Amino acid sequence: MNEMVTIPREEYDRLRAAAEDLADLQTYDRAKAALAAGEDELIPADYVNRLLNGENALRVYRDLRGMTQAALAEKAGVNRVTVAEIETGRKQGSIATLRALSEALGVTLDDLAE
Where would I find the HTH cro/C1-type domain in this sequence (predicted)? Predict the structure, then answer.
């Protein structure tokens, strides 16, 4: 049996706004918890803007981590020339190579995908 309740529109709008506020607070709490647990990180606006402006994600994350191409290549177990070619767009890189690079940078494979 469906029960029906009638309330004034003003009360309905107030309840909807309160529900949206609660959802926003819950999202905020989840984000803060993920940061505190080390599951997520804050990225400075300069780096985000570089990504949004279409700069190669591998280069941006490598710069964010303060790594040279050689250091990243060594940590990922790939050739430095491969890193340079991916950063300049001459090569896309295999899934295995991108996975190794993403793990070395501490980002997801999706973070490097364009």
Answer: 58-112
Residues 101 and 60 in one domain: yes
Contacts of residue 35, Cβ cutoff 8 Å, sequence gap at least 6: 41, 42
> d(Cα 34, Cα 36) in Å, to the nearest integer?
5
Which residues touch 82 (CB under 8 Å, ≥6 apart)? 73, 91, 93, 97
Kindly state the DSSP code that residue 3 receives in the 8-state scheme.
-
Give me the helices (H) in 43-108, please. Answer: 45-52, 57-64, 69-76, 80-88, 95-105
In a domain, 31, yes or no: yes
pLDDT digits (tens, 9 = 90+) for 63-99: 999 999 999 999 999 999 999 999 999 999 999 999 9
Q: Looking at the domain assignment, is residue 98 inside a domain?
A: yes
The pTM score is: 0.74
Cα(47)–Cα(78) distance, integer angstroms: 24
Give the type of residue at 69.
Answer: Q
